[in-house]
């Protein structure tokens, strides 16, 4: 009796219909394997770019904004063109990425000097440039940089035009976009063939951008200059909604849809204390999405971000050290009780 058979033999006539989906998912999984290596390559390329820019500056080769603009356009165009004409090997990709980063840094410096005093124009110019690079570049790391740069340019624009309240909209878009992409990953890749080439870079960039925007906003100096910290509940509301949206689909996949509203209600009750601390809610979001989809990078970022934002929240509390100690003891006791409850539930 034959017990070993291929996936094609097992699916039979359905093989032809499922083959495109399996092929696209296989490409995505293959790309996921090398993501950590690509991140390290990016860090190395960024360091190389900074050193080369320093060398050009010391050599007097970039002594005017005109030279910066010309070299910036040249280096960026060469990096994108080489990546589109030839398939870059993993060894050569960091080199061309560093060339592209040098070009972008020089171009941004030239634009900043030329448009000195007009931050709105600078941020808009950079955002448009990164959008064009995002469309034409085939480097996953460059796409990651471009999406992150666009997010922070939007952040700078809303501050420059005097509407810091729009930060709530930006963070809400980043949170929901992150959840939507991971929940409908297979559907997006199958429906839009080009999505597989952009998915990793955009999905990870949304996560890092969300944490980054909150990291530079959740502090006392920002509060005093821009708006009342009490309004952070708006951002937390967007993030908590995105988290519950992700849990809704996760419960359905685990065939727990009959207990959906009970579980979502309990989760909402647990998350309500995070309303004044959107960074903590965002960290929990990354932990949940990363754990459910098996993305260790998201889990790691969520753990680190959670520790940072809990420290921020502790530092920003306008209460005495004694009251802060009570908060810490209460939080520790709560987590300890949750641990006991989870162990009993599992047994």
- How many angstroms separate the termini? 40 Å
- Percent of sequence in beta strands: under 5%
Which value, in Å, is the CA radius of gyration? 23 Å
Mean pLDDT, all residues: 76
The dominant shape is globular
**Major sheet, described briefly?**
none
> In terms of per-residue confidence, which ranges show pLDDT below 50 for 5 or more consecutive residues?
1-19, 24-33
Helix content: over 70%
Secondary structure class reads mainly alpha
Q: Can you describe this structure?
A:
The protein has helices at 7-11, 15-33, 35-58, 65-85, 93-114, 119-136, 140-160, 167-183, 185-191, 195-217, 220-225, 232-253, 260-271, 278-293, 296-316, 321-346. It is mainly alpha-helical. It has a domain at 320-347. Helix 8 (167-183) packs antiparallel against helix 10, helix 10 (195-217) runs parallel beside helix 15 and helix 12 packs parallel to helix 14. The longest helix is centred in the C-terminal third of the chain and has 26 residues, at 321-346.
């Amino acid at each position: 009796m034959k017990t070993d058979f291929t996936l094609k033999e097992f699916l039979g006539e359905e093989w032809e219909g499922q083959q495109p989906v399996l092929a696209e998912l296989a490409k995505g999984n293959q790309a996921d394997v090398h993501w950590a290596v690509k991140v390290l390559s990016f860090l190395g390329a960024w360091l190389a770019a900074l050193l080369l820019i320093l060398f050009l500056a010391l050599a007097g080769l970039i002594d005017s904004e005109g030279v910066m603009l010309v070299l910036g356009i040249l280096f960026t165009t060469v990096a994108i063109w080489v990546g589109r004409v030839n398939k870059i090997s993993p060894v050569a990709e960091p080199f061309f990425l560093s060339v592209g980063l040098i070009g972008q840094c020089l171009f941004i410096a030239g634009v900043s000097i030329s448009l000195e005093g007009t931050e709105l124009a600078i941020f808009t110019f950079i955002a448009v440039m990164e959008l064009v690079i995002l469309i034409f570049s085939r480097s996953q790391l460059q796409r990651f940089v471009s999406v992150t740069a666009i997010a922070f340019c939007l952040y700078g624009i809303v501050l420059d035009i005097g509407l810091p309240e729009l930060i709530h909209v930006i963070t809400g878009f980043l949170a929901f976009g992150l959840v939507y992409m991971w929940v409908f990953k297979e559907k997006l890749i199958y429906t839009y063939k080009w999505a597989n080439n952009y998915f990793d870079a955009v999905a990870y960039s949304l996560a890092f951008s969300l944490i980054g925007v909150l990291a530079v906003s959740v502090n006392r100096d920002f509060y005093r200059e821009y708006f009342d910290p009490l309004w952070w509940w708006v951002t937390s509301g967007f993030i908590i909604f995105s988290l519950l949206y992700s849990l809704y689909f996760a419960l359905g996949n685990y065939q727990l849809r009959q207990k959906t509203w009970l579980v979502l209600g309990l989760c909402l009750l647990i998350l309500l204390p995070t309303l004044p601390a959107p960074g903590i809610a965002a960290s929990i979001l990354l932990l949940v999405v990363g754990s459910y989809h098996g993305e260790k990078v998201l889990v790691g970022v969520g753990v680190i971000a959670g520790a940072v934002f809990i420290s921020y929240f502790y530092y920003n509390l306008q209460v005495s050290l004694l009251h802060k100690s009570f908060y810490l003891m209460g939080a520790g006791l709560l987590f300890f009780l949750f641990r006991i409850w989870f162990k009993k539930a599992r047994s």
